[in-house]
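Notes, p. 3: input format for complexes.
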Amino acid sequence: MSKPTSLSRVGDCVVIGGGIAGCTIAYELARRGLRVVVFEQDWLASAASGRNMGLLVNQVDPRALRMMRSALERYREVEPLAPLALRTAPLLLLARDPAQLTLARQHAQALREAGLEADLLDARHLCREWPALAPDVAGGVLVAESWLLDPAAATRAFAEAAREVGARIEIGVRVASALPDGVLTDRGRVAADAVVAATGPWLSDLVPSLPVSAGRGWLLRTAPLPTPIPWVVEEMSWPGQDQLSRLARPLTLGELASDGRPEPAVSALAVAPLPGGAALIGTSLTPSLRDAVEGVQMPRLIAERALRCLPGLSQVPVVAAWSGLRPMTPDGWPIVGRSVDGVWVHGGHGSIGMQAAPATARWLADLIVAGEGGEELSELGPERFRSGVLEGRSPRAD
Ligand SMILES: Cc1cc2nc3c(=O)[nH]c(=O)nc-3n(C[C@H](O)[C@H](O)[C@H](O)COP(=O)(O)OP(=O)(O)OC[C@H]3O[C@@H](n4cnc5c(N)ncnc54)[C@H](O)[C@@H]3O)c2cc1C
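Output follows (398 residues plus flavin-adenine dinucleotide):
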């Protein structure tokens, strides 16, 4: 497909973007027999898909948990092709104060309803398990099992799986424009029967009808800790999907002019143990202008927040810090389906790309190939937005 092909050849498909959204949809389409080529302007997982925490229970909303269960099966399917460090760890939903504890209790109920074991524990119990924790935390909910992985490796595993079933992956090729019948790349025009845009926070550059913005988040990586971390930790200040999207909306010109929101819109302590005993510590979310210099103070703010809950870690060396851009939508849920311009879309996964994209890719491939993507997709289509404005009801969050 490096030169224009005849559109009568049914089954040629171009996927734009080599993050988790692009690699999962490329795999799903190729395994259904389509001839797939992926164009990635940089390298696989070069953006958020290689720069996140790799938590598969990053949002405990029941709908997100349903996506996670389906995604977990997909990760297990591709794991034999490339190691992705898929592992389990108990998850602590940490409450710093009584208000967070009330929220933690509500989440525990939702998690139990979703079939996960979740127990409320007091601060004394938690500090016994991990003495690095501050004794004045309010408590937390311990979820018996959660899953995490190496996000860049997991993205590459889907790319490998796609190659195994015939997909071609072209690195260093930028797509300048996307149409329903093909794309224009810096190497020339490529015709296709279907084009899928999976370009993360850059989706609206190619499909202007989509209201996708960018939410920057930062992570720190430590050297190995003196004692192993017993859990994945998520502080209860991380909001639900709907609220998250409101907080991450793009700044207005007025806000920008007055520098009205210099602080992150959301910050919450999150800690993920890494193989070898080191840890990732996060995280924050700030509406981003993508290419402006932003958030240089964030590593310090994240360290401060971490030490409020984990004073015992003050002597641990921090060896790296980086940021990534979450693709945000006005209602917080991914955009999966055909846009008004005829280009298919797999994106806008916000803070749950690793948790959700392998699931939404399978449903989208069913829709593209068989015309039926299942009940979950009926609420994720781009038609719920018109002219960049959220219309109709949000997807169910039951
Ligand atoms: C700090 C942080 C922590 C996070 N933690 C988690 C977590 O624990 N669990 C979880 O589930 N999610 C998490 N996320 C969210 C997750 O990282 C994203 O939802 C996900 O990576 C988005 O994937 P994507 O493929 O849509 O976008 P991206 O990873 O941004 O990939 C898009 C790709 O498209 C390419 N591209 C763009 N434009 C073009 C073009 N014109 N031509 C060719 N290529 C193009 C880009 O180079 C890029 O590689 C986190 C995000 C951040 C920032």
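Confidence is low (pLDDT under 50) at residues 1-10, 388-398.
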